[in-house]
Amino acid sequence: MPLYEFEGKHPTIDPTAWIADSADIIGDVRIGPQSYVGWNAVLRGDHGSILIEAGSAVEEGVIVHISPGFVSRIGPKVTIGHGAMLHNATVEAFAVIGIRATVSNFATVGEWSIIGEMGLVCEGQIIPPAVIAIGQPVKIIGQIQPRHKDRWLVAKKRYQELTQRNKKSLKRIHLDETG
Description:
Elements: E1 3-4, E2 12-13, E3 18-19, E4 24-31, E5 36-37, E6 42-52, E7 57-58, E8 63-65, E9 71-74, E10 79-80, E11 85-87, E12 90-91, E13 96-97, E14 102-103, E15 108-109, E16 114-115, E17 120-121, E18 126-127, E19 131-135, E20 138-143, H1 146-169
Parallel strand pairs: 1-4, 2-4, 3-5, 4-6, 5-7, 6-8, 6-9, 7-10, 8-11, 9-12, 10-13, 11-14, 12-15, 13-16, 14-17, 15-18, 16-19
Antiparallel strand pairs: 19-20
């Protein structure tokens, strides 16, 4: 995986985290234990800081960036779906950001909240805890139910286990090795 120092700031990655070879980790990016960073993700901590807390999954193609002096924090056990984009965002514990969703400047997504696929959390918007929000811009359509938590706890555990499985079993192959 490409790791880049920028103006003396460099990534810090917990040894139990797993990061795909094609992910770019730039500058002040801190990745916590058992976190997963997927293929072609870009975490660009050149202007400010990015904090990925324990057990979070940053799936394939995600982009996270920040403005000067800001900290973009992804809390513990968060799932950031494939192709999502976060800029100056705060995402609290257990939240889910859907596939291709955007969380824009200085917006906050509350604990256990779900942002639906392609959702747009606008600049400065605050999504309260334990709600489901969809649309462009997102609007709250319901409350999180126990079945949502149960489903997402299983998915989050699967990604935490995948960090270890990838470290043990993922092996780059060449065409001549596949038969």
